[in-house]
Design a protein that fits this description.
Layout: H1 7-10, H2 18-30, H3 33-50, H4 52-55, H5 86-122, H6 124-139, H7 142-153, H8 157-167, H9 169-183, H10 187-194, H11 199-235, H12 246-255, H13 268-292, H14 314-319
Length: 320
């Protein structure tokens, strides 16, 4: 993810060809099986989250039967420890988890992009100061710090969003800084500066449009990391007890002895949801990165690119 875009991809004029580059970028993502599968799963999750109140069979807090009732034709994924329909909880959990992932991603991207842009563009003292702050957050263990801050701030959904977002910006800052350092040396940026363009105009009109596709890749990956972090906090009992997310579903299932009761349907569906969204974010992010730098495709091992060469016989070698 720290790849610097080649000048052919970045362009030769500040932002004028951004729409033209956006079409081939998304076309290359949708035409490749892995990124297209990830994008389709994310779209499905997004549609489910948007229409959750209308497609839930029951209210998430409604008791519709006995605790840990087995899956049936009425309740496709059974019931949880309180007699709630797992399908309804899963749909509501999709909404809450995606809200947390998207909001935490927005916080992390705003902070990380701002720090990376200022550090990469101005350099020198500004770069040194901002990167030392970034290094401080990088060396601090992420999960213990996340647990401590979440415990101090209290169990609230918006507190969890702020905690995750304010602790995940370092990765974006590092990547943006490296990219801005490269883009600011382009010919069109130097020409704009020689014509009297100010720093704000150069950053907003000539540098930011060029790194925007890379920011998309970083943002998608941040969504997956944020959802995983939220699920970890919920599992440890530090999440919002009033919000139904995939993490709280797993936590409540363990608290109500779903394992000892053999109620796999209370644990496996939310776990699959978390894994599916994280993998989908990785596939989409990897597809965007490969579209920006096609040379990276040769470095990724896959069923299509990794082949075992046929051994050459000694007779063929002697003949050559």
């Amino acid at each position: 993810m720290s790849t610097v875009l080649p000048e052919a991809v970045v362009g030769t004029a500040g932002g004028a060809d951004s729409p033209a580059r956006a079409r081939p970028l998304w076309r290359s993502v949708w035409t490749r099986p892995a990124p297209a599968t990830g994008a389709a799963l994310l779209v499905l999750a997004g549609v489910t989250a948007i229409f959750a109140p209308w497609i839930e069979p029951y209210r998430p807090t409604q008791t519709v039967g006995a605790a840990f009732a087995h899956p049936s034709t009425t309740h496709w994924l059974g019931l949880d420890g309180t007699g709630g329909d797992v399908v309804s909880l899963l749909i509501q959990g999709t909404r809450i988890s995606l809200i947390v992932g998207a909001a935490a991603m927005a916080v992390a991207m705003v902070v990380g992009t701002t720090v990376g842009m200022l550090s990469g563009y101005f350099g020198r003292a500004v770069d040194g100061l901002l990167m030392r702050i970034t290094d401080f957050f990088l060396v601090v263990p992420y999960l213990p710090l996340l647990i401590i801050v979440a415990a101090v701030w209290g169990a609230s959904l918006w507190h969890i969003i702020l905690v995750i977002g304010l602790l995940q910006w370092t990765w974006a800052a590092r990547i943006v800084r490296a990219q801005v350092k490269s883009v600011r040396q382009r010919t069109y940026v130097r020409r704009a500066r020689s014509l009297g363009a100010g720093n704000l105009r150069i950053i907003s009109h000539h540098i930011f449009p060029q790194i925007a596709p890379l920011l998309v890749s970083i943002a998608v990956l941040h969504v997956g990391y944020a959802i995983f972090s939220e699920a970890a906090l919920d599992f440890l009992g530090l999440g919002d007890p009033l919000a139904v997310s995939w993490g709280t579903m797993i936590e409540h299932a363990f608290q109500r002895t779903a394992v000892s009761n053999g109620a796999w349907w209370a644990i496996v569906p939310p776990g699959i949801g978390i894994a599916a969204v994280i993998v989908s974010c990785f596939l989409v992010g990897q597809g965007v990165e490969d579209a920006l730098d096609p040379g990276l495709r040769r470095a990724h091992l896959s069923a299509r690119t990794f082949r075992i060469r046929r051994q050459t016989s000694s007779a063929t070698i002697e003949k050559r």
